[in-house]
Design goal:
Blueprint: E1 2-10, E2 13-19, H1 35-45, E3 62-69, H2 72-77, H3 79-82, E4 89-96, E5 102-106, E6 109-111, H4 113-120, H5 141-151, H6 155-182, H7 187-199, H8 206-209
Antiparallel strand pairs: 1-2, 1-3, 3-4, 4-5, 5-6
Length: 210
């Protein structure tokens, strides 16, 4: 999805333009080569806090820009992105100024940092050892499962699960109501009685017939 990344005057990077290919891309280099700076730049594009201490030359602005290209199905599932796209492309840029102010742009239009965060939360997920990520946040589980089911065309199955879940909750409520109405206090004893009766495998009207 990330097609190109441009970084100027940020940390140890003076000016770099990186193109990414579709699929998995790996950054390799010895300590201090600047790998983590690339991640810091992506964090800024996802709406991260401005880090003015990383201006390489503090008399000039730092500029970070990322160009993202999305598949049609991704666009369809993320309505909040659609209105900002030009074709299937999204260009996000951050500018850090020497006077400790910053600005954000989406496809050339100035926008708020909170808006960038809202749009990019489904686009960039940065995590490392000890960090929280999308898959470690339980609040994301339901939406991830729903998205998976939609991709696999499991709508019918999802509807069945939903209907059965409602039935279970209805039965639970009936049990609770019954307990309240009958002042049920010795549930274990009643369960024992049911088990004793079940042991005899009684048939309908068997007692009457005898």
């Amino acid at each position: 999805m990330l097609a190109n990344l441009r970084i100027e005057n940020f940390a140890i990077i003076e000016d770099i333009d990186i193109n990414f290919s579709k699929g998995m891309n790996v950054l390799m280099g010895e300590t201090g080569a600047g790998k983590s700076i690339i991640i810091d730049a992506l964090d800024l594009l996802s709406g991260g806090r401005s880090t003015f201490s990383k201006l390489r030359d503090d008399s000039k602005k730092a500029f970070i820009e990322g160009r993202f290209v999305f598949e049609d199905d991704f666009v369809e599932k993320n309505e909040e992105i659609k209105e900002y796209l030009e074709g299937n492309e999204l260009v996000i840029s951050r500018v850090l100024l020497p006077n400790k102010t910053s600005s954000c742009r989406i496809n050339g239009l100035t926008t708020s940092l909170s808006n960038v965060q809202k749009i990019m939360k489904k686009v960039i997920d940065i995590h490392s050892q000890g960090d929280n990520s999308l898959l470690l946040d339980e609040r994301n589980y339901l939406s991830l499962l729903d998205n998976y089911l939609e991709e696999k065309d499991y709508d019918e199955l999802k509807n069945k699960v939903s209907a059965n879940y409602k039935k279970i909750n209805l039965k639970r409520k009936e049990i609770e109501d019954y307990k309240k109405e009958t002042n049920l206090v010795d549930e274990d004893y009643l369960r024992y009685q049911v088990e004793e009766i079940s042991r005899f495998n009684l048939k309908e009207n068997e007692i009457e017939d005898l």
